[in-house]
Write a structure and sequence with these properties.
heterodimer, A: mainly alpha, B: mainly alpha, 6 helices
Chain lengths: 147, 126
Amino acid sequence: MTLRKYLVLAGVAVFAVTGDSLVSCGMKQVGRVALDRLPNILLVVFHPQIALGVLFLLAFFACYMAALSWADLTYVLPTTSVSFILLTLVAKFLLHENVSETRWLGVVMISLGIGLVSQGPPALTPRPRRKPPGDCLAETASGRMEP
Amino acid sequence: MKQLYAWGAVATIVSTSTCGDVLLSRAMKQVGDVGELRRHSGWAMVLARILRNPNFVLAIVAMATAFYAMLFGLSWADVSLVVPASTSLTFVTNALAAKLFLDERVDHHRWLAAVFVAAGVFLLAL
């Protein structure tokens, strides 16, 4: 694992939490959307806070795609759940919120999950090897075409 | 009715985001390591390979559906219910779907990790 890959995983965690928080704040201001007025929900993305949240979610999506290009789905999802731990620590030490014992138990369980998955390599599953276009030497040397 | 809408939204988020994650993972496996690809062929080739992949297009549709289901759910219930409930369930359904549809080698460490993280997220919401 290189530093770039750790930064990509951190990006997935941080951008997802920021985006989700901004979108939920925006939806609190928008209010309830009735089922018979469901098409109105398409327009809420123009609300400033939701639009900013969508930008963060796009950044999350870019990092997520990059991570999935070299790691298994079952590796990326647990490792990026570090965001829930960060949120709890921010709530406790920066916002001075009361964090119950149940929530600390939740933090311990997420940490155990991350610890378990991060012991192994990011990709356990063999993936198709792609060669860049025009890389004839590599193709000839391997003696087979890419799938 | 409020509870029905909230849990209906959670069910929709879990099913569509699992479909989206699996399709996106399959698409990105087919594209290859974007870092290496960018170094060899540039950003234009990376974007072209991603955008031409049918799994990527289907993943976008599934994820957009999940996003609007989340907006609908958030308009009826608190974020402390909708996000942790859907996220914790998605960890488990994704591990199952990765095993079934992506043929990922999910060893016992990864199964345990999915269950621990799902339970942890659920406890955070209590």
